[in-house]
Records
---
Amino acid sequence: MSAGATATGDPTLGPVWKRASWYAVLSALSVLVLFPIYMTIVRALSTPRDYVQRGQPLYPVAVQPDIFGRAWTQGDLGRQMALSAVVTAIIVTAQLTTSILSAYAFSFLQFRGRTAMFYLFMATLMLPLEVTLIPNVDTVQSLGWFNSIQGLTAPFLATAFGTFLIRQGFLGIPRDLRDAAALDGFGHLAFLWRVAIPITRPVVASFGVIAFLSAWNQYLWPRAIVNEAKWNTIQIGLKNVGAANVDEMNIGVAAAIIAALPVLALLIFLQRHLVRGLTAGAVKG
Amino acid sequence: MLADVVSVSVSRVLFEDVTKSFGEVVAVDSLDLEVIDGEFLVLLGPSGCGKTTVLRMVAGLETVTQGTLRIGNRVVNDVEAKDRDVAMVFQSYALYPHMNVRKNIESPLVARHFSVDGGAPRKLTASERSQRITQAAETLGLASLLDRKPAALSGGQRQRVALARAIVSRPAAFLMDEPLSNLDAKLRAETRLELVELHRKLGTTIIYVTHDQVEAMTMADRIAVISDGRLQQVGAAQEVYDRPSNLFVAHFMGSPPMNTFEATVAGGGREGEVTGAAGRVRIDAGPAISLPPVGSRVVVGVRPEHLRSQGHGQQGRQQEGLRARVSAVEWLGYERHVICDVAGRTITLREPAEGQAPNLGEEIYLDVVANHVLLFDPATSERIP
Ligand SMILES: Nc1ncnc2c1ncn2[C@@H]1O[C@H](COP(=O)(O)OP(=O)(O)OP(=O)(O)O)[C@@H](O)[C@H]1O
Ligand SMILES: [Mg+2]
């Protein structure tokens, strides 16, 4: 790093030694986070028997460059990922819509029993999936929704967590802005669309990612209501591809890496919003 | 172009016995006030006296608990905010942080309906909107900032954007809630002048809220002094300053505030006299005023600039005047404030910063300019007569 760069660099970072130590700490943390991911890739690429014989080193052994292609075809990942994508898109869209609308009602509308109803909403957060699983399976079965899109999505169209999170964001909107909007003649929808959502965009985006992750990674629920291979989502597919290739373990690992790619892409795409969302409360101004 | 800007609607605002309560709290109590079409009226009062509440009722952001509120000739108690044809400038400016300056200025024009050239109300076309935005931005010197977001503006620039957003809809009245309080002293003084200029140019009624009497005195056509939700006095700045209608207004207006002390009427007639613990004060009440009968208790009010020091070092020179002991001297460059103890009360004298200042602890005699003495009734605290 040249002296010139320091002189014109970001003054808030302070002197060179301070910046250097920050970079050291951040690098160490990155290694800590990235190491398991790196080792997964190493395992996927290595021929399992040779890799174990060599004492499981930090680099790939007897590389199989075609492993990802094989995992893709053997695991039928394309079809399963497409199904998961549809299910996830429905769940994320629905959760965003219902959470935003209910958060709006709980933040900006006055109605009888508002507080009580809000706490009732929040109480559902206390119920883990395991508690509701059996009754939900019964319900879905009685509706004849086993092996169907409705069955895969219906229980997840609304969420108290999203309502809570977005309501917190809405409550942070200053009263003056709402008043200004009232004078500007914005009705509820116009205010929601033109003011409330744009201002809380980081929060909404963060919730969108959370909803995406939990929908994409769902395992227990599809396991419970799917009994035709045709309706297997990607996480079930991963389990199967691992089980079917016990002696070629790296196929399962490669499949897992492929299944994680959409998540990675989403995080990169939304990175800017997420950072702001997580620090939004800290630097309100 | 100016003719185009000038509002044609009648924009009198009339409060008839208007009360606003929040549960137990009566924020505004039986307000009777007429804001005359085209005037710059300042609502002045201490924090929490209900100024903002009055403004918010006019804006339609707060309902009227009791009484009648009119804008023009229309009773607006039940009219929605957007249909009242008023624009508000908030203390926080309330700019939309995610919109650039252009969008912010445009926001009052997007959803509302306007009557153009006396036609039926309708939405403005994009070109009408952009023409108005350009005009408002030019009036306030914002033309080069239209693409910036509020976060990238200085406090003064944000304030201008808030003003531009108010004038763009050409409302019948502007409502401004302490719009200058976030500016530094120099910018505030400049903006005061610009607001007066803007008012002169637009001729639109302005109701302006502040707790700063300098703002009130420099800008207002009339000042309405409010305390505890009640209107105390309304009148031109000079009138409110010279003839405060009660002790609250007397104390609130002026810095340093008016001196007051209790005394007894000692001589009646036109040129009376009162005596108090500290001495005698002669009063030239003027032809229109009759003093209370001899022996009545009164509160005497004298502004600091209507006290004269008889000169120091000479004791007991006259029997008239107030004996005072100097407890502090504040020097302000162009004048000084001599703070004295007069029979246990603090009395402040304002004099030009010339000659020798009195010493601390020195005893001096204060003359009162006889025709500037005000008397108040100690029971009601109203001015006599
Ligand atoms: N929404 C409300 N609910 C309950 N009380 C309120 C509400 N708004 C205002 N008040 C009360 O009404 C009174 C007047 O408030 P208001 O905001 O009008 O005062 P103000 O003169 O504008 O004061 P400041 O100069 O501090 O802005 C205060 O006692 C305040 O606490
Ligand atoms: Mg206020």
Note: Chain B has nine helices and 21 strands.
---
Amino acid sequence: MGRIALKGLSKNFNDVEVIPPLDLEIADGEFVVFVGPSGCGKSTLLRLIAGLEDASGGNIEIDGQDATNTPPAKRRLAMVFQSYALYPHMTVRKNIAFPLKMAGASRDEIDRKVQAAAASLNLTDYLDRRPGQLSGGQRQRVAIGRAIVREPVAFLFDEPLSNLDAALRVNMRLEISELHQSLKTTMVYVTHDQVEAMTMADKIVVLNAGRIEQVGAPLELYRHPRNLFVAGFIGSPRMNFVNGAGAAAYGAQTVGVRPEHLRVSTQQDEGAWRGRVGVSEHLGSDTFVHVHVDGVGAMNARIGGEMGVGYGDDVWLSPDPDKLHRFDADGMAL
Amino acid sequence: MAREASPSRKIVTTAVAWAIGLAIFFPVLWTILTSFKTEAEAIASPPSFLLFDWTLENYAEVQERSNYLRHFWNSVVISIGSTLLGLVVGVPAAWAMAFAPSKNTKGVLMWMLSTKMLPPVGVLVPIYLLFRDGGLLDTRIGLVMVLLLVNLPIIIWMLYTYFKEIPADILEAARMDGAMLRAEILYVLTPMALPGIASTMLLNVILAWNEAFWTLNLTAAKAAPLTAFIASYSSPEGLFYAKLSAASTMAIAPILVLGWFSQKQLVRGLTFGAVK
Amino acid sequence: MATAHSRMTARLMISPAVIMLLGWMIVPLSMTLYFSFLRYNLLMPGMEEWIGFTNYEYFLTDPAFFEALGNTLALVGGVLAITVIGGVGLALLLDQPFFGQGVVRILVIAPFFVMPTVSALVWKNMFFHPVNGLFAHAAKGMGMQPFDFLAHAPLLSIILIVAWQWLPFATLILLTAMQSLDSEQQEAAEMDGAGPLSRFIYIVMPHLARAITVVILIQTIFLLSIFAEILVTTNGGPGYASTNIAYLVYAQSLLQFDVGGGSAGGIVAVVLANIVAIFLMRMIGKSLEP
Ligand SMILES: Nc1ncnc2c1ncn2[C@@H]1O[C@H](COP(=O)(O)OP(=O)(O)O)[C@@H](O)[C@H]1O
Ligand SMILES: [Mg+2]
């Protein structure tokens, strides 16, 4: 079991309100990602759940039990830290065994579980090394091994991949997703990278300045962002926003359209935005062209495959009307 | 310096540096040499440097006449005792200040340091009277207490600077792994801080071994450590250079060895981390 | 950072240290303060009476006090001058590449680990002694009259002994600081056309400034309380020629048994040390910032 409920949970650091009171339900077995710009309070929220910080107000329930004042050691949660936080003076074996030792497990049980965890994480050959002798990816695996052996009710991850290089990051992302598929244990995962959020989450919680902007499945957020902040944060490359006359034509204060929902044409097109091509980024499968539109500014558009446009060419951009997002003066979706 | 110096320059530097180094070390060297001379040779004019009859009789005689080993043992008990007690009190305090700081932590640390700046003569009279009335004069336990208090700020401060270097998230990881406070300190903090704790211990043994205000004022014959024992040579009826040298050599030898191991820690400890 | 639970534990763990140091500071210091207002002589028990500031009047108007104050300042100033200048020079030298660096370093720091009573006695007997000391031998060897250092220049002799003990400390700290000097910075200055002297003035010295301040302040704390060296070599004499405040207080209270007068002197010493301490705390306080 691993049901976590936050009820009116809030946090102040010396009179600065970092997390205003918020409510959130995390279902058993769910993979929940907290995403938001850096400094928005993701780590703080995760540490509140972990018990590493005291709540300033509200409650935390784990499996229906009030855990607000339970010390971290007794919450049956496991955490993977951004810095991995391995014990430098212990071998990999001892690192992974530590939670079991704390739980008072027998020698045999410890051995068995450490072996099993090491095997599943490809660490068997490294069991007698110290963390200092491992690569970043291996350290990451040890941290995960240490978390899984104690069979927690939920895993907490705080930006676990941000210290890895790009290729490794993609691998570990898959490994963590697979781990979730096989264990089916609740996971709460913090990241500032919306790609990680989109690819891994069952449910994304978008945070901004300590407030929850929107909660939903990845595609739900992509298709129906509730406000400008979510619209701009979810999706890569970023959504284009148009204000003023261009937006008024659609009866909104602001309209947003994703690069993949813009049609680019070299022929004059009524009702389309006209602009000049700037830089083009060729990714092979797609090309992103940056277009300077008079009276609107820079817009980014995706072209499938190749298309004969070059620097300085005139082009016309027309949005897919079904995929257009309209926002009112308060930035809320219409 | 990243670059190689020219060979001739390196040779000149070598000569100058060795000459100055030996000059500074000379009093120590001379003491050690004299300890192996007879009393007559020790005051011979002109003095002989190496060509004398080497003898060990001074060492035997110092022990025989003045029960040297007792004073040596007093020094050991007092310096190690006060240091160990200091660690027992200091480790938890430094843990608290490094890992659970409050608004007052900095103030408390500074205040602790300020006690170190209290000149001992400022409290000499009352401590002397309290010791006299409490039967603590000339006892090892009394000196252990005083040196514990004298060096406690340095112990706490050094430990604090070492603990500060341990990333807090490793301790938090231990908490998440189910460790309560005792296990966290025992299995995670202490092993990681061991080099720092060892340095702290070393430096404080040295400071306590050489402390020469309280040891001189609060002891007589019985509990006198080596500092006070050596001071008793200041007004000998005759002059016993060779025996003084033998006693001195034995008194400084252990600390010279420890001191050479702890140069770096010395800098850090005595500057309270201001220079690393 | 921390939870209420760990903060409570923290308070519990820090309190033994705080209570002990509070006791060490408050109890004896307030007793000293109290005694300083009493006529209180250990030879005349039961005659204690409140006499207000009389002890301070006596202590502060005693010519011995002025002499001791002057000696204290000379001792501190003399030792500081020798150790700081010598320390910078030695640090510069030891920072150069040469054969046997490690050994020379060990030789240079050795005096710091010699207990004060030993170094004082060794210097007194084996170097300064007018008949058997090495300096006397050397003087006779050159056909000169031996000089009785401790009789004719007691304060200077003590300054030399103490400077010998503290020179390693200054050297070690300045050397440590010097080694943290970025060699690229030096090379950049060299590229800019700075010679060795201007590099020393504009790059090395400013870098060492902080370490020098630390050396001065910390040594001052210890040097204000020099005691064993005086006790063992001159007993403060001849007259008061080598008595400093610390020794004067000791002599008054434990040799003349004048607890009241000694206590007044002790309070004066505390006030003097505090003035120095305030500067030191400012310095260290700054370096505490992350
Ligand atoms: N221990 C602390 N004391 C004071 N402020 C803190 C502390 N920890 C975090 N904060 C503040 O809380 C805010 C949220 O921090 P954090 O949760 O670490 O953000 P994120 O993980 O989203 O980058 C930041 O503005 C940060 O400065
Ligand atoms: Mg964070």
Note: Chain C has one domain: 57-288.
